Amino acid sequence: MIEFQNVTKYYPTRAGRHYILKDVSFTLPPLTNIGLLGRNGAGKSTMMRLIGGAENPSAGKIIKDCSVSWPLGLVGGFQGSMTGVENVKFICKIYGLDIAQTRDVVEYVSEFSEIGKFMDMPVKTYSSGMRARVTFGLSMAMYFDLYLVDELTAVGDPQFRAKAEKAFDELRARSTIIFVSHNLATVAKVCDTIAVLHQGEFQLFEDVQEGIENYTYWTQNNLEPPLKRYPKEVVKKKNSSKKAPAKKAPGGT
Amino acid sequence: MSIPVRLPNNSAWKNQKLVWSGLFVRECKTRFGGNKLGIFWALLQPLTLPLLLGVVFGVLLGNGSTSAMPYPMFVLLGFLPFNLFRGLVTQSMNAFKANQGLLIHQKLKPSDPIFARVFFESLLAFIAFSIFVAVATFYFDAQPSFADSLSILAGFASALMLGTGFGFFAAVAEHKNKNVAHIVNILLQPLLWISCVFVPLNILPDSQQKFLVWNPLVHVTEGMRLSMYPHYSTGDVNLLYSLVIGLIVFWFGMAYYRANLSVLYDLGD
């Protein structure tokens, strides 16, 4: 379980404080697939680092009693001059696995990724598809209560994609997922809860469509907090009828 | 097979130790290149130039200006701490770039790869110091004194803090602007010649000495010699000066790093 208690996060910049979160409180429902929406620069990555514990909030408290994965789906995760096996071993080590567990993980990842002898070659010689296979296999091999998934774009050949999709479904069933994507169609397909991060505000929507509609409405009109929710029929109508966005922010107060 | 494996719930300190030891092992693997002779080359390679210069000039000049110790020993005692400083700056500067991919693991802070490299460089310097000073002592019949071990330690500590502090500066600045790497590498060249690595301070004219003593590295190189050869005559050097400057530089380097953490995490999704 993850609980934010009056969390504020800002970065000092030349132009003053840049707020990512302003006095935000919520509890993440367990075993759900949460789609995290927000525009570029809204602070989705910062949010992930706060949840993962890489960064501390400027004020407030984050209570966490579950294990959190690294953000999957990013290109990174490995060190180029080490081999695939060395990288996997390194990551097992920093996550505190013992020798027997590490052996199991290496074996599993080699099998899952199907890249054969490339496992013993430096990662910088890999194609992006090969990298993705190894990273994905590794994240499958380790059990996290919560997986952060950052724009998991389909890579690799159709045969591997089918395998990855099946594995991802397994992941979704066994853990909480926080899914970041700008592709709203994918989010709607994968997630059953929506979290919107906009102008320092954070809101959770139990209804996916309602969440997406409100997110679109807020961001298209660049509304400022406090953000007011609309029932989905209303927002849908507003979104579809709006060609020239209204100057005054409706429902601002 | 027990896949997926459950992760142990370690304390923060245990995690930190795992990260540092993991990065240290990684550092050894990539630096020694899996070669059995790797450590030998890592130690010898930076020392070939000073050894050569030391022997050639030692033969050409005799021991005139550095009568307290043979010239090769003189060069060695100046070059080893200088090389530690230089290694720390350049290695720290490239630490982010070399480990960028790993930084998505939230157990790693951006400073962790730097600290792993600092530890690695320091260890390498310590081994180099032990071996080369021992060899030089026997080969050149140099008879250094280790009575003032506190001063020797202070010399290395100064180089360590100066190098780490500037290393953090360089690493963060390089991350913001790629030209910094070139500038730092250019600046490090003349630094070798104004740090009294090859020339003793007191044979230089007073007008030059006045400026050189501002350089804390002069106090490190000359201070090291003085602490191992109490009869060595040098200018107005004090290891306390380099230690204090080292502390200040280290503190500012860390402060600069902290102030730029959001940039290092690549703020802005």
Task: Write a compact overview of the structure shown.
The complex is a heterodimer of chains A (253) and B (269). Chain A is of the alpha/beta class and 253 residues long. Chain A is built from 8 helices and 9 strands.
Task: Note down, in words, how this protein is organized.
The complex is a heterodimer of chains A (253) and B (269). Chain A contains eight helices and nine strands. In chain A, helix 7 packs across helix 8. Chain A is of the alpha/beta class. Chain A is globular. Chain A has two domains: 2-69 and 183-241, 3-Layer(aba) Sandwich (Rossmann fold), CATH 3.40.50.300; 84-143. Chain B is mostly helical and 269 residues long. Chain B has one domain. Helices cover 70% and strands 1% of the residues of chain B. Chain B has helices at residues 12-32, 38-44, 48-61, 71-93, 95-99, 111-139, 149-176, 179-193, 206-212, 216-228, 239-259, 261-264, and one strand at residues 5-6. The longest helix of chain B is centred in the middle third of the chain and has 29 residues, at 111-139. Classes of the chains: A alpha/beta (253), B mainly alpha (269).
Name a few traits of the molecule.
heterodimer; A: 253 residues; Rossmann fold; 2 domains; three-stranded antiparallel sheet; 8 helices; 38% helix; globular; B: 269 residues; mainly alpha; 12 helices
Write the layout of secondary structure elements.
The complex is a heterodimer of chains A (253) and B (269).
Chain A: E1 2-13, E2 16-28, E3 33-37, H1 44-52, E4 59-64, H2 84-94, H3 99-113, H4 128-141, E5 142-143, E6 146-150, H5 158-174, E7 176-180, H6 184-190, E8 193-198, E9 201-205, H7 208-220, H8 232-241
Chain B: E1 5-6, H1 12-32, H2 38-44, H3 48-61, H4 71-93, H5 95-99, H6 111-139, H7 149-176, H8 179-193, H9 206-212, H10 216-228, H11 239-259, H12 261-264
Helix pairs in contact in B: 1-6, 3-4, 4-6, 4-7, 4-8, 4-10, 6-7, 7-10, 7-11, 10-11
